[in-house]
Specification:
Strand order of the largest sheet: 1-2-3-4
Distance between the termini: 35 Å
Number of strands: 4
Bound molecules: zinc ion
Helix content: 10-25%
Structural class: alpha+beta
Length: about 90
Amino acid sequence: MSYRPSVENVTKAGSNEKDGLYEFVVKMVDGTACRVFYSRYPEWRLTNISRLQQSPCPICRKDFICKCMDNFSGVIASQMHEGQWFDKALAE
Ligand SMILES: [Zn+2]
């Protein structure tokens, strides 16, 4: 599988500060967008990921729900950390 997600931009879509739950929209350089859910405590942890259906899946090409992005949650999560996207998204 040659697909490799590359995080281009992250925006906060929702949060429950009290419980440390956050929802972000992550845009990839290829135009794929995902909704990701994070739990902040004790440390940032990706709990769920789903592709926004505004563009077909880059892996299976479906334009409806699929689970392909689940396989890339680890890669995307590490890019979220490396790019310090939490700080950037929350500062907006
Ligand atoms: Zn797919």
